[in-house]
Amino acid sequence: MLDEFSVVGISKNFGSSQILSDVSFTLIPGEILGLIGPNGAGKTTLLECIVGLLSVDSGTVQMRPEIISAKNRKHIFWYQPDDILPFARQKVSTTLSFFRKVHGRGPNELQLLVDRLELTSMLAKPLQALSKGFRRRVLLALALLSIQPLLLLDEPFDGFDLRQSLSVMDLLRESRADRTMILSIHQLTEAEKICDRFLLLDEGRVLGIGTLHELRSLTGLSPQATLEEVFLAIT
Question: Are residues 166 and 186 in the same domain?
């Protein structure tokens, strides 16, 4: 289980444009934190800075409270970018089997994911031939086969219908026993269903972080206010 993980004061510039400005937060072990914001808010940039794919202009990633170097973050984070296609020409079964063996997972663990994500009919096909929704299911299977304690998933529900989204949410909730997650989600109704807390990001700045109840109190909205209403009130 992840313990005492914090992002402290991360800022990132591209040329003269500031994409992230002094972003700080601490994760609660076992939680699902929703990274919420409109397109261009800096969500993907923040994830890439956290895992070390992008350098930062300032700030650190820490655990208890040592700073984690970029080269050591691969042991802690599993980052799933939006719509990546690993081994796109290989059969889905080949790719899943490869990742299972790399992470030391058992055949039964893989079969459970195949069943839960309804991938049986796709196993003989190459990943690049699948629809967006099935590609997303394969990517989720790869993420859940990993052994890193912190999963960072970029738009994990994109391409799913309501039933499929709810099924995947159940699967992710079941993984919280030994995982902590950051989910970047632009659909606020989906985020409200799955996340324990929310980090609201806009123009690279943290506008608020907390449970929906805490964010409602921050904005003075009613106990029935939705996440969308809270976000609009804060922005």
Answer: yes
pLDDT confidence of 3, banded at 50, 70, 90? low
What is the pTM for the complete model shown?
A: 0.92
Q: What Cα–Cα distance (Å) separates residue 160 from each residue in 23, 180, 190?
A: 30, 22, 11
Phi, psi values for residue 213, rounded to 5°: -60, -45
- Indicate if the pLDDT at residue 91 is higher than 60: yes
The residue out of 147, 168, 189 marking a domain boundary is: 147
Among 132, 137, 183, which Cα is nearest to 159's?
132
Total domains present in the chain: 2
* 27: nearest Cα among 174, 209, 178, 193: 209
Kindly report each contact of residues 222-230 with a partner whose C-beta sits within 8 Å and lies 24 or more positions away, as own/partner. Answer: 226/188, 226/189, 226/192, 227/36, 227/188, 227/189, 227/191, 227/192, 227/198, 228/188, 228/189, 230/200
8 Å CB contact between 47 and 79: yes
